[in-house]
C-alpha cells in the first residue's frame, strides 16, 4: 500500500473537474482559481469554456484568473457519449489546443468496441492523436464500468497502439458507474508503465483517492478536490 500522501502530494494527482452542463464562465474561473489555491495538477472543463477567463465574457471583457500557480488546462472531446464522428472529434481536439488546452480527454465509442470493431476504435483515437500531437497529452476514456475485463484490455491496447498517453476509466456520466479499483488495476496491468492511468468518476473521499492510487492510478479526476484534500495530512 502507498504511504499516505500529504495534501500537496495528492494535489499533484488531481484534475480538478467541472463538466456540469449549466456551468458558467464565472464558475470555470472560480474552478481555476480554486485549483491554483489547492495546487492541483490541472483543471478539466468543457471545450466551449476555453480559453479560461475569456469564454462568454461579459461585454467581451475577460474575467481575471489567478496566476499564483497556474494549473494545466484539460478539456474533453466527444463527451460524454463518444458517439461522434472521428472527424468531429479531431476538429474539436485541434480547436481546443488552439484555445489553450494542454490535455485532451477523449471518449471512445464503446458500442463500436462491444461490436468487436477494435480496429475502428483505434482509428478513432489515432485521428484525435493526429489532430492534437505531442506535447498535448491525450487521455482516452474507455467507460470501464460498462465493459467486460476483456473489453477493458482491448480498449487499453487500442489506446496504446494509437499513440495515447493515458487511459481513463470514466466520464462520470454513464449509468454503469465510475471508477473501480478493479478496473484501474487491470488497466495498469495492461499498459504497464508505458501509459498513465486516470481514475475518474465517484472519487469523493481521501480513502477513495488513495485506493485508486494504490490500484495503479497516476491521475485522479474529481470535483470534490477541496473536500478530499481538506482531510489529507499536511506533512
TrEMBL record:
Active site per UniProt: 105, 168, 198
GO molecular function: deoxyribose-phosphate aldolase activity
Reactions the enzyme catalyzes: 2-deoxy-D-ribose 5-phosphate = D-glyceraldehyde 3-phosphate + acetaldehyde
Pfam family, one: DeoC
The entry's keywords: Cytoplasm, Lyase, Schiff base
Entry EC no(s): 4.1.2.4
Pathway assigned in UniProt: Carbohydrate degradation; 2-deoxy-D-ribose 1-phosphate degradation; D-glyceraldehyde 3-phosphate and acetaldehyde from 2-deoxy-alpha-D-ribose 1-phosphate: step 2/2
Gene3D superfamilies linked: Aldolase class I
Subcellular location, record wording: Cytoplasm
Domain of life: Bacteria
Alphabetized CDD domains for the sequence: DeoC
Chief location: cytoplasm
Similarity comment: family membership: Belongs to the DeoC/FbaB aldolase family. DeoC type 1 subfamily.
NCBIfam families named in the record: deoC
Function: Catalyzes a reversible aldol reaction between acetaldehyde and D-glyceraldehyde 3-phosphate to generate 2-deoxy-D-ribose 5-phosphate.
Name of the protein this chain belongs to: Deoxyribose-phosphate aldolase
Higher taxonomy: Bacteria, Bacillati, Actinomycetota, Actinomycetes, Micrococcales
Gene that encodes it: deoC
Amino acid at each position: 500500500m502507498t504511504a499516505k500522501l500529504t495534501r500537496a502530494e495528492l494535489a499533484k494527482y488531481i484534475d480538478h473537474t467541472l463538466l456540469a452542463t449549466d456551468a458558467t464562465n464565472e464558475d470555470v474561473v472560480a474552478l481555476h482559481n480554486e485549483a491554483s489555491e489547492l495546487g492541483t495538477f490541472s483543471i478539466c472543463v468543457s471545450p466551449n469554456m476555453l480559453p479560461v477567463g475569456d469564454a462568454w465574457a461579459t461585454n467581451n471583457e475577460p474575467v481575471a484568473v489567478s496566476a499564483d500557480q497556474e494549473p494545466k488546462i484539460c478539456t474533453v472531446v466527444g463527451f460524454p457519449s463518444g458517439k461522434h464522428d472521428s472527424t468531429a472529434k479531431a476538429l474539436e481536439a485541434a480547436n481546443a489546443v488552439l484555445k489553450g488546452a494542454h490535455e485532451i480527454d477523449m471518449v471512445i465509442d464503446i458500442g463500436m468496441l462491444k461490436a468487436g470493431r477494435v480496429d475502428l476504435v483505434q482509428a478513432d483515437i489515432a485521428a484525435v492523436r493526429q489532430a492534437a500531437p505531442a506535447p498535448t497529452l491525450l487521455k482516452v476514456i474507455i467507460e470501464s464500468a460498462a465493459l467486460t475485463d476483456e473489453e477493458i484490455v482491448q480498449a487499453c491496447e487500442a489506446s496504446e497502439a494509437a499513440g495515447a498517453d493515458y487511459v481513463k476509466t470514466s466520464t462520470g456520466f454513464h449509468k454503469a458507474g465510475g471508477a473501480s479499483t478493479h478496473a484501474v488495476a487491470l488497466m495498469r496491468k495492461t499498459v504497464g508503465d508505458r501509459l498513465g492511468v486516470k481514475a475518474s468518476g465517484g472519487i469523493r473521499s481521501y480513502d477513495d483517492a488513495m485506493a485508486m492510487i494504490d490500484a495503479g492510478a497516476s491521475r485522479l479526476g474529481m470535483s470534490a478536490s477541496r473536500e478530499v484534500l481538506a482531510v489529507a495530512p499536511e506533512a
